[in-house]
Amino acid sequence: DDDQLSPQNLVNPKPVSAVIKDFFGRSQLSHFMDQINPLAELTHKRRLSALGPGGLSRERAGFEVRDVHTTHYGRICPIETPEGPNIGLMASLSTYARINEYGFLETPYRKVANGRVSNDVEMLSAYDEDNYTIAQANAPLDKRGKFVNPSVLSRHRGDFPQADPSDVDYMDISPKQLVSVAAALIPFLEHDDANRALMGSNMQRQAVPLLKTEAPVVGTGLERVTAKNAGTVVKADRSGVVEYADSDVIRIRHTKRGQGPDDNPFRSEEDVYYLKKFTRSNQNTCINQKPIVKKGDKVEAGEIIADGPATDQGELALGRNALVAFMPWEGYNFEDAILISEELVTGDAFTSVHIQVFDLEARDTKLGPEEITRDIPNVSEEALRNLDESGIVRLGAKVKHGDILVGKVTPKGETELAPEEKLLRAIFGEKAEDVRDASLTVPPGAEGVVVDVRVCSRREKTDSGSRSAISAQVQKVKREYQERINEVRTTFVKLLKDDLMGLRILDDVVDHKTDELVLEKGKKIKVSHLEKADYGVLARLRVEDKKLQQKVTRLVNMAAMEEAKLIAFRDSQIEMLRKGDELPPG
Predict the structure, then answer these.
(1) pTM for this one?
(2) 129 vs 554, which has greater pLDDT?
């Protein structure tokens, strides 16, 4: 029966979801992202692997597979690869390389015609490149783009001939295109031994973000580009003027609203950027964003407005500009040993913040429910000094090994009672000492400051007070979003009112939901039509002027999309409020 057909009857989703879950859960190619610093994150996303399903196994991979090949030039970095059993099997994309629609790596070259270098850039795969002679990026050129020297050092397959300028087909676009981003961040890379360059590019990824960041004095110019593309800094979506900036939020008023061909006139004039504060990365390092703009600053679209971890004024800053002396010092720096000034330690030059998460669950046991409380047996008031009335550590408390973070008591079984306790219970019917301490304490070696506390609970246990508070928050969210939806409609009417008022409608427009005739053919368009009619109805409105028709269609589509976006945001916020920090089932 066709009426009974549904997507579930036609397609069985279980095998598809099983394959997806298996890939993300068990596949060799699905990794937990390396988030130590922005460079580590960027490199991990640009990693290439010869291992995994359909690939090689490291035991059987020989030297030929691991070795650098001619076709790697500009596509796979010859420097950045792990030391150890995976050497040559894990690699990194070169700086300008990209993957084409067929899955092959391509690299860009400048076109050369009759010995003259043009600014036309072409992407070539290794297969295409085989037939051409390619000059180096630093070959000297005159003002007209012609090669200065009578012969040019170039590349053809695996050879490096001195070619005549007229025989050159392409030219490298940059000396950086040979290596990966991590290797390109090493100053004077060309003077380094290849083995040490490999170690240097790998070790940059291990630098933890410092408390006081400092951009390098000697860099390669790629620091800003790396920070911008790593996704850890905040960039302005649109140009405008900074109206407000503090450690938590940046507000920018867009100055050219609706003026560009692709600029949405219904989008709010103000862009709000919320900054991440002391959040934990996958490797327990600290992600903290700080504004680098102030009130009144003019910003362009794409400009960095807030620093992330290991960035300084929008530049990647993995270390510090420390003064280094190469000299013997009474034998204390023999071989690999180094001496550091005490000032570096006391001045927090290399201090970093690490965030650890400790959690505790209170469950229902056979003997009764466990309870999170401040009332813990045989614990002094001194030990409870950092706990609030509900038994949870307060924000900002300094804690060290052995301090209580969450107070918890668990019911004792009859078997756990000592003989004297059994006697006391028999005489006095004592029930208060019926619990034992099961509190969460700081483990050995850990100390620091509490930066965040989250309490998750089962929703059915919420009282009427918290339910009414949630209801009030939901109403507030609805009001705020309704105001913004009304603002979109007001802007829409303002933009079309002058153009459409008094024009005659070419065709009848019927509301498909109600089958009601909304706009009648031959009637004049009124403001009320624009104010009340559904966007879906207005999309079918027809007028004689072709240019005006295009404008109407574009504005209706934009307004409808903006309204749909606002409704989706509103619903997700309400859903979050209603669900709260609910525990997962189980």
Answers:
(1) 0.83
(2) 129
Asked if 204 and 44 count as a contact pair (C-beta separation under 8 A), the reply is: no
Distance CA 113, CA 133 (A): 12
Closest Cα to residue 27, out of 46, 62, 54, 58?
54
Question: How many whole angstroms separate alpha carbon 255 and alpha carbon 266?
Answer: 14
What confidence tens digit (pLDDT) does each residue in 107-159 have?
A: 999 999 988 999 999 999 999 999 999 999 999 999 999 999 999 999 999 89
* Cβ contacts of 7 within 8 Å, gap of 6 or more: none
Buried b (16+ CB within 10 A) or exposed e, 309-329: bbbbebbbbbeeeeeeeeeee
Give the model confidence (pLDDT) of 412-471 as tens digits. 876 667 788 778 777 876 555 578 889 999 999 999 999 999 888 766 555 666 778 888
Residue 346 three-state SS:
helix
DSSP state, 524?
B
Tokens matching residue 167: 């025989």
- Token pair 């009637």 is found at 523
In total, the chain counts a number of residues equal to 586
Q: Give me the residue label for tokens 């796979």.
A: 76
535/557 Cα distance (integer angstroms): 8
**Dist CA 169 CA 307 (whole Å):** 43
Instruction: Give me the domains of the chain, ranges plus CATH numbers.
Output: 2-99 (no CATH), 105-178 (2.30.150.10), 209-355 (2.40.50.100), 364-450 (2.40.50.150), 464-579 (no CATH)
